[in-house]
Amino acid sequence: MTLNRDNIGHYLEEREAEIGFFATDAKLQVEEIGDGNLNYVYRVYDTSKPESSLVLKQAPPYIKILGPDYPLTSERLSYEARALKVYNRLISDAVPTLYFFDPDSAVIVMEYLPEYRLLRDDLILGKVNPIIPKQIGKFMGVVHSQTYQHNIDKTSENHYRNAFANTDMQAITGNYVFTFPFIEHETNFYTDGLADSVEILKTDSEFSQQAEILKNIFLRVQRGLTHGDLHTGSVMVNDNSAKVIDSEFAFYGSVGFDIGLFWANYLLSYFSHLDASKIQTDIISAIITLWETYIEEFRMDTSLKKRTLHVIFHEAVGFTGMEMLRRIIGAAHVRDIENIGDLDRKLRIEKAILEFGKMIVKKRNHIANVHEMVALL
User: What DSSP string describes 321-353?
Assistant: First the structure.
């Protein structure tokens, strides 16, 4: 069943016993929200009480933006529902509340977040709220450590491995982050004037070797529950709070991937604010704060914690560089950079991003701590 504005009311009526959110005589209004590439997302509200709202998210069996000729498993929403259940149990204030999941129609019903906006939009405007990296650092530290293989019994570990064996979505990420941007591929595109820099990157054997190692880590290592798509477009914020959304890529893997993606998108914002030193300084502080909070919230026996965080950090640095690079020359770019209208300025920024991303991928095992990483900027 494909949901739309006309049939969502009927869909909710049929499932009133399971959801039970609206009054039986409520007059419902439906609007499509969000600009995601994969899924349909709707807000449903009572016209007499607009604050009484739900979000319905449906995963069609294809990539929404491309249509039925580009199939993609609807099971991706099963992983999001499972992840939301874990998040609601471990750190409920960091995610929307999950009300209902319908696996047959691939529909999630969850909390609507009024007065929240995408973190990416705030950063584009130069708003760097120091509360946000603390909250996201806590979210990652809690979830990663409480699902980490060395912190849980074998039965729990096997449960997470099986419940989050999200191999289809993981394979997509593996290709679009670690492989496709660095070969000739139909989905790649980049700004005119970058061709020489891209060619230098593609022919750098040391970089290619590290990219392959990082892809193997991403695909094979299984350590903890990983969101899998945790960037500044997957976090909604207000002045006091952050909520993590869009966890259909969740898998049991290398938890440093979450840190790397989040750092990378902060850094893309950093480069986009060329010549705005106060904003750049605030972003550097946010990157440091996130890691320091993560360390504090990552609970583990002292004898293992230092060594574990050492491994997570070095993998995260590599993932940071790969994410930055693919957002400039791969299939999925970010508005932080794409919205720059001055072509000369945009090229200068993109070349700097390519140089920094390549450098930290190659140097990832020699960067001792987060302060050393940001000192390379």
Answer: HHHHHHHHHSS---HHHHT---HHHHHHHHHHH
Sign of the Cα pseudo-torsion (331, 38, 35, 51, in order): negative
Element containing residue 282 per DSSP (H, E): helix 277-297
Q: Give the H/E segment covering residue 316.
A: helix 302-329
Mean pLDDT of 348-371: 98
Q: What is the tens place of the pLDDT at every residue in 285-313?
A: 999 999 999 999 999 998 899 999 999 99
* Predicted pLDDT of residue 52: 87
Nearest to 73 by CA among 209, 168, 8: 168
Tell which residue, 73, 80, 120, has the closest CA to residue 100: 80
Model pLDDT, residue 307: 96
3-state secondary structure of 143: helix
Place of tokens 């290619």: 208
Q: Is 102 helix (H, G, I), strand (E, B) or coil?
A: strand
End-to-end CA distance of the chain: 50
Q: Check if the beta carbon of residue 73 is closer than 8 Å to that of residue 92.
A: no
Identify whether the C-beta of residue 181 lies closer than 8 Å to the C-beta of residue 326: yes
Q: How far apart are CA 319 and CA 256, in angstroms?
A: 8
How far, CA to CA in Å, does 175 sit from each of 113, 225, 327?
A: 32, 20, 13
CA distance 68 to 295: 44
Number of neighbouring beta carbons within 10 Å of residue 301: 9
CB distance 54 to 112 below 8 Å: yes
Whole-number Å distance between alpha carbons of 39 and 213: 31
Backbone angles phi, psi at 263, to 5 degrees: -60, -45
Q: Find all residues with CB under 8 Å of 285, minimum gap 6, and list them.
A: 128, 130
User: What SS3 state is found at 161?
Assistant: helix
pLDDT at 219 over 80: yes
SS3 of residue 281 by DSSP: helix
Q: To the nearest whole percent, how much of the chain has pLDDT over 70?
A: 99
